[in-house]
Amino acid sequence: MKALGYTFRDEALLRRALTHPSMGKQDNQxxxxxxxxxxQYLMSDRLYRRHPEDxxxxxxxxxxxxxxEASLSQIAEKLGIGxxxxxxxxxxxxxxxxxxxxxxxxxxxxxAAVYLxxxxxxxxxxxERCWPGEEEVVRPMQDSKGQLQEELQKNGGExxxxxxxxTSGPPHAPVFEAAVYRGGQVIGxxxxxTKKQAEQAAAVRALENLKAGKN
Length: 215
Known about the structure:
The chain is mostly helical. The chain contains 10 helices and 3 strands, in the order H-H-H-H-H-H-H-H-H-E-E-E-H. The chain has 2 domains: 2-136, Ribonuclease iii, N-terminal Endonuclease Domain, Chain A, CATH 1.10.1520; 144-211, Double Stranded RNA Binding Domain, CATH 3.30.160. The protein is 55% helix and 11% strand. The termini are far apart.
């Protein structure tokens, strides 16, 4: 993975990080769990140091934008992680290499692999090289759900509604899937480790779709 800017001493860690759950027990889910925590810490530390005037709510929202499924899947796509994934034929045929949730999980797993191989500073280096700067993401003062509601109601539109559409993963670490609707039509979907995170991710995706003129 030259795009990471990091050379693994233990390449087995990288292989594990790129192994999709469809391949059996030796998959990347444990690394994904660890990578989520590593990323949350590193991004929190970065934002705390860079934005001394920001309040907790603003920092929390900015972090959410930088570590949400949409952001992580885009980073993974740029790094070519989808092409490098190890998965069974069935998953590949159903578009597994381009699924945002799959790319997001793999990105977190790869960051965990860097952390285990080279330590926290190595992981920090990858984050700084690969993650966008704060100026590159939308930074509203309210949360994404609030911003979406404001956007839809500008011209008398309907209030968005949310629904948890499914869950996946093991019982001790479920991943929730959410959809946001406008007038009965799905305008965004997302996943998260809590229902609230999934709804926020769906709102972020809906805002992106609105900006791109897809809704």
